[in-house]
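G., the chain you wanted modeled:
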Amino acid sequence: MAGAGIRATLAPALAPTLGETFFLPNFCGIRVVFAVVVVAQLLSFILVLASPWQGDKWGELGRVSLFVQWVALASAAALCVLRPWLAQLSALAAALISYLSLLLVTVVLSLAAVRFTGPLEGGTDGSDFVLRNLAISAVLSGMVLRYFYVRHQWAQQVEAEAQARIQALQARIHPHFLFNSLNTIAALTVSNPVLAEEVVQDLAELFRVTMRDLRERVSLQQELDFTRSYLRIESQRLGGRLRVDWTLKNLPLQAHVPALILQPLVENAVYHGIEPAAAGGRVHVLGTYNRGVLRLEVRNPLPPPTTRRRSGGGNRMALDNIRERLQLAYGPAARLEIDQREGLYRVRVLFPLPAADEVVA
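Predicted structure as tokens:
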């Protein structure tokens, strides 16, 4: 019998999520409880198959399953109740108390089983049964708690690296076109003061957004407006060389998305696809929403082969940053795709998004 060892739950449902400050998963959640039940049943099968093949195996499986599920759910309930208090302790203290709690649950329920059903195996007082369960629980509980702690440390490291990339992206956004934008404003101040004021407002909006904490979410409408502000600045600088098409269908404008998820893609399209070409080109921004999945895509022409190829370091950094943030926010359900065909460079991001009332036709 397997005491609290059923906690050998290495399935994703029991793994602490990225961004959590405590290494134990939330055992109060329905998905986690379901995972505990499933893993406990698998462990029951293993224990029965590992025992000598004699007698009524189906009857033995029923007894083992009942006891293992009993201990599994009781252990999950204990960690569910203790978790808020454990989260306030150091990792070592929380791990030690959790470990002792699992052993205590195993011993108490093993003694209860002996009391109400009589000795199940070995010894007239059921001591062999209790000691065997305690040994299994001690080994498996220690392994699983260690797994949770190591995985949490890995998640924290991944998040720290992602935040470093976010800061690098924030530092990179403005110098790329800041001086050109200021020159454009200076020229417009004489020829068109009203337009110069609009460009200043767009530039101020750009700085306002890029200076905020990118861990915060913004509405999809805000992200689109911010991208339009950026393109208006570049349009004043590049003139007729930059042409922009928008294709937006059924977008949940009030749904919240990670900040700066679209603008860096458009900036890369302008810098790598439009500026190197003497005749400029067209940037196409597409957005669709279908079956709970948001798709944002940016297309730009590939520069002619004779054009000197610009360094792709900044482009790769922006794409890696967006990919990292999507993974942190949405996990494997989000992805970033890149392809080149028909003379176009295409970058698209796809991630799940709850529907909202307001949409764009």
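The chain has nine helices and seven strands.

Shout if anything looks off.
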